[in-house]
Amino acid sequence: MEKKYFIASGKAHLGPFSLSELREKKLNPDTLIWREDLKQWTKVTEIAELKIYVIPVPPPTPEQIEVQIKKENKEIKQNITNRIVKKATIYTIVTYIVFFIVIFIVIGGLKSNFERYPTPYQYITPAFEPYFSMGIYVSSVQNLKIVLISISLFWSLIFSAICFVLFFIREKKKYSYQ
Q: Of 174, 177, 178, 159, which Cα lies nearest the Cα of 84?
């Protein structure tokens, strides 16, 4: 009785094939074969009677190797760039929050009592006098809080954008030494 062979093709298998039918198939060295007396799928080059039917696969050309190396290098650079941007972004978010809190406190955003000393200006109440010198004109404490938050957000954004560039450069230098 003639042995029957199966060929692995992705997730499926083809066959059964007789030995004469396998001669017509284009078998490469990585083709997996199974027959009844084998416990598991085996490479065709490990089955003695089938070795002669294997079409050798030539090694890659120098151009193919060069293209593959360029592709791998591009992927590596992209992964490094992604890591650098991710780290710089995390540092920038933390920096933004810190800048906001510091700026908000420094410009007096946490004061609960805005009463200060009397002002010489009749149309400026004592509560808003320190902010008048900064060019901030508001009509109520609530509006002043909103303005102070807006100022803090704006300057935090400016400082954090500068820090993002600095963090990015610093992280890029770390990876350039590796």
A: 174
Bridge partners of 34, per DSSP, are 6
List the structure tokens of 163: 């820090």
Structural domain boundaries, residue 74: 62-176
pLDDT tier at 118 (50, 70, 90 boundaries)? very low
| CA distances, 101 to each of 58, 88, 149, 150, 157 (Å) | 65, 20, 10, 12, 12
| In a shared domain, residues 47 and 67 | no
Q: What is the mean pLDDT of residues 86-104?
A: 93
Measured CA to CA, the distance from residue 79 to residue 66 in angstroms comes to 20
Both 107 and 78 in one domain: the answer is yes
User: Do both 151 and 71 map to the same domain?
Assistant: yes
d(CA 59, CA 126): 86
User: 158 and 75 in one domain?
Assistant: yes
The tokens for 18 are 């007789």
Query: How many domains are there within the chain?
Result: 2
User: Does residue 48 sit in the same domain as residue 71?
Assistant: no
Query: Tokens 């151009």 map to which residue?
Result: 63
* Whether pLDDT at 128 is above 60: no
Instruction: Note the pTM of the prediction, 2 decimals.
Output: 0.54
Confidence tier at 63 by pLDDT (50, 70, 90): very high
* Chain length of the chain: 178
